[in-house]
Design brief:
InterPro entries: DNA-bd_dom_put_sf (IPR009061), MerR-type_HTH_dom (IPR000551). Pfam families: MerR_1. GO terms for molecular function: DNA binding. There is one protein chain. The protein is α+β, with helices and mostly antiparallel strands. It is 40% helix and 23% strand. It has a four-stranded antiparallel beta sheet with strand order 3-4-5-6, with no helix packed on it. A two-stranded antiparallel ribbon has the order 1-2. Helix 3 crosses helix 4. It is elongated, with a radius of gyration of 21 Å. The protein binds a DNA duplex through helix 2.
DNA sequence: TTTCTGACA
DNA sequence: TGTCAGAA
């Protein structure tokens, strides 16, 4: 089982800035909408002063992307934003859990196996997450 | 050329 | 929300 490398970031994602034109191309949201959403307080641009060109953080870009997904699902703008915010709060938790609990990933011919380590402190069982044929499920195995 | 604000449909 | 005008 290969060990997972440390998660030290090589790129400071906080320095990845996007202009409104780039956001339009990437998310498909029009500049008119982006300005309106900001005016309504749904999104924020980096220090939006006077007539200066707006700049968006990568985090905001992701947020906008998620809002559009919920909009396509039929939610109102307000509801889509609420959903996106909720999703945003979940990400750090998911990342923390995976970073600390995922021990490694094995790739077999017909399946991928995620090693989540021991089930408890007794270290008698190990739990795996399996991805096979488009399905996902857990598997617990006794440790020799 | 791109973006900004304001305004009209 | 799209689009247009006039100004950075």
């Amino acid at each position: 089982m290969a060990e997972l490398e440390g998660n030290d970031a090589f790129i400071d994602t906080n320095k990845l800035i996007f202009g409104i034109g780039q956001v339009q191309q990437i998310t498909g949201v029009s500049g008119r909408q982006l300005r309106y959403w900001e005016e309504q307080g749904y999104i924020q641009s980096i220090s939006q002063k006077k007539g200066a060109a707006r700049e968006y953080s990568m985090h905001t870009l992701f947020f906008i992307f998620h809002v559009t997904r919920f909009l396509r699902s039929g939610f109102t703008l307000q509801a889509a934003v609420d959903r996106a915010k909720k999703f945003d709060r979940q990400l750090p938790v998911l990342r923390e859990f995976l970073r600390s609990q995922l021990k490694g990933v094995d790739f077999d011919k017909d399946q991928s196996v995620l090693d989540f380590g021991y089930v408890d402190s007794s270290h008698t069982q190990r739990i795996y997450g399996v991805v096979k044929d488009g399905e996902t499920f857990f598997r617990i195995e006794n440790v020799d």
